[in-house]
Specification:
Distance between the termini: 33 Å
Radius of gyration: 17 Å
CATH topology: Ferritin
CATH architecture: Up-down Bundle
Structural class: mainly alpha
CATH class: Mainly Alpha
């Protein structure tokens, strides 16, 4: 029974992370392409976003390998467990794939909003990974510990470029509404969405990896 519980926990945790890393790097790819066109002279910022994109893609591949090495597929997680999906939906009022990066870059305040969203997502990710690495259950799985150590190392560099962009242009940091949205999404995932996923024993698995 304990072994089955652990296996289910690892499946749920890794499936949720795999989904979020995939959504993260594919969204950043679209933003990066627009930045290269809109701000070609901002070489340092573009390089930082490119590194962020590459890191998220590598994290996704690590979780993909985690499942491949065990001969099973991830659970079919959807946007209800997607942190960035829900944040974009609440802040911008549309789905992540419906965000037009070029349109957002044309409107400075919209891009400031996106920078704050990405920055808050990464800060939240740092705190969550720190908690997971203190978890006795996670520490019992060397494969997941290795992945989370890589994420722990990479995450700080993901926050700073967006933070500096806002500072350089005199924009404010996250306001109360954005902070409340961050807290709401986090706790609704931790206390509701993910437990429901854990208990949904008939939940299907992916047939193929998204990338």
């Amino acid at each position: 029974m304990l072994s089955a519980f652990r296996r289910r926990y690892y499946d749920v945790l890794a499936s949720v992370y795999l989904y979020n890393e995939y959504r993260g790097y594919t969204g950043l790819e679209r933003l990066l392409a627009a930045l290269r066109e809109w701000y070609p002279y901002e070489a340092d910022f573009i390089a930082a976003v490119a590194k962020h994109t590459d890191d998220e893609r590598r994290h996704y591949r690590m979780f993909k390998h985690f499942f491949e090495s065990q001969g099973r597929m991830p659970l079919a997680v959807d946007r209800t467990c997607g942190y960035i999906d829900r944040f974009v939906g609440l802040i911008f009022g549309r789905a992540l794939e419906e965000l037009d990066a070029k349109d957002i870059l044309e409107k400075e305040e919209q891009f400031f909003k996106l920078c704050r969203l990405v920055m808050m997502t990464e800060f939240r990710g740092m705190r969550q990974v720190a908690r997971l690495l203190r978890s006795r259950l996670v520490r019992q799985n060397p494969g997941l510990v290795r992945i989370f150590r890589v994420i722990e190392r990479d995450e700080p560099s993901h926050c700073l470029p967006y933070q500096r962009w806002l500072q350089k242009r005199g924009s404010h940091f996250p306001g109360l509404a954005e902070q409340f949205t961050d807290v709401w999404i986090h706790y609704s995932l931790i206390l509701l969405k993910i437990p429901i996923l854990f208990l949904s024993i008939r939940k299907s698995r992916l047939i193929t990896f998204p990338a």
